Amino acid sequence: MEACLSRRALTFLIIATLGMAGNCAGAAPKKGGNASQGVGPARWEETIRKFEAADAEKAPAKGGVLLVGGSNARRWVDAATYFPNHAVLNRGFGGAKMEDVLHYTDRIVLPYAPKVILLNAGGNDLSSGKSPEQIRETARAFITKVHAALPETRIIVISLPPVRRAAETPGGLDGLRAMNKLLGSLATPDKKVEFVDLFPAFLDEKGQHRAELFVEDGTHFSPRGYETLAGLLRAKL
């Protein structure tokens, strides 16, 4: 009973911590944005169809590095320039949740047969009320689905970052660390699944949120933030 209450308390804390971030990153855009009408993954159908139309016009090369996830992935529009020795394809969309990425795996992941997948999702699931354990299991389902079709593909799971809202909420960073520990548990000894923890690089020597690595909202990465992330990923690629 105590463990159950502890998990509930952790989930509540993280939701409260990420509530502002979820409102600005996870909510479906208004008319004219990149989300379709509907609920759940269906709200991204229009965006996914645009990806498919672009692929039909010019098919991306297979065997590259695929970046997929929510708004921090989507906003990294020049990701390819950070990795000149790799063919990088960005398929980040909207404020996608981990469950959205899983839902569209057959359409915007598997067709590219990537050698490496950079998975950047989970924060929007938390802010919508999913428990850390549910998010870990959704990520596990994504990994299982990918490896069933592409057993040699490496998957790099990127942790949730220490966003400003968490840093300003008592216990907020500890809540995110607990979530990241669950995601990190998915890493495998053969390195087919690896985990990149953003906390050491995105906090200063006093353990404080590094504002210069984020834009004004304290949630999305600044150019310096993306450069820092790229440095961590280069070590894996």
Automatic annotation (TrEMBL):
* InterPro entries assigned: Ester_Hydrolysis_Enzymes (IPR051532), SGNH_hydro (IPR013830), SGNH_hydro_sf (IPR036514)
Please state every residue range assigned to the domain named SGNH hydrolase-type esterase. 75-227
Species for this entry: Brevifollis gellanilyticus
Name this polypeptide is given: SGNH hydrolase-type esterase domain-containing protein
List the GO molecular function terms.
phosphatidylcholine lysophospholipase activity
Q: Which residues form the signal peptide?
A: 1-27
State the SUPFAM superfamilies in the record: SGNH hydrolase (SSF52266)
Keywords, A to Z, come to: Signal
